[in-house]
Amino acid sequence: MPDVVTCVILYEDKMLLLKRSNRVGTHKGKWACVSGYVEEGDIMCERAMKEIEEETGLFGGSVKLEKEGKPITFFDKTEGKTWTVHPFLFRSNTDIVKIDWEHTEYEWINPSEMGKYDVLPKLKEVAESLIHHQ
After folding, report:
1. Residues 6+ apart with CB under 8 A from 17
2. CATH label, 3-131, candidates 3.90.79.10, 3.30.200.20, 2.40.50.140, 3.40.50.970
3. Measured distance CA(61)–CA(34) in Å, rounded
4. What is the structure's pLDDT at 2?
5. What's residue 78's pLDDT?
6. What is the per-residue pLDDT for 20?
7. Domain map of the chain by residue range?
8. Burial status of residue 25 (CB atoms within 10 A of its CB: 0-12, 13-18, 19 or more)
9. How far is 25 from 130, CA to CA, in rounded Å?
10. Interacting residues of 19 by C-beta distance below 8 A, sequence separation 6+
């Protein structure tokens, strides 16, 4: 059962969505937040920061952890896996992002617009749990 961190990043009132490339292992072409597998011995918030830096070029001075959410475990029919998602909410002081190979494009959206995007399973619930319960 893979554990992953998912990092919702806000800039002002917008949320960062990234479109997954065809080079990633799962959910190619879907929109997502910054995410990554948790490795043995990882400290969750440190893994979250590492993924943000790798996938967006944002680092400690640009983003600040605001909240750690409750983990969500669910079965993903598309991938045939049970995932445990460890959600984090970060706030950025910039909207300038440099994406890596894992993504092909990004957009800053109003969180209420997420329904217009083909997003990862449970991403909407994860984001809402973090944003609307601050």
Report:
1. 31, 32, 33, 106, 107, 108, 109, 114, 117, 119
2. 3.90.79.10
3. 17
4. 86
5. 87
6. 97
7. 3-131
8. exposed
9. 26
10. 29, 30, 31, 32, 103, 104, 105, 106
32/30 Cα distance (integer angstroms) = 6
Rounded to the nearest 10°, the torsion over CA 93, 121, 69, 102 is -40
pLDDT profile of the chain (134 residues), mean per 10: 93 97 94 95 94 94 94 91 95 96 97 94 92 68
Any idea which residue has 């617009």 for tokens? Answer: 113
Q: Which two tokens stand for residue 99?
A: 């994406």
Cα radius of gyration rounded to whole Å, the chain: 13
Instruction: Determine the Cα–Cα distance for residues 91 and 112; give it in Å rounded to an integer.
Output: 17
Instruction: Find out whether 45 and 67 touch, Cβ atoms under 8 Å.
Output: no
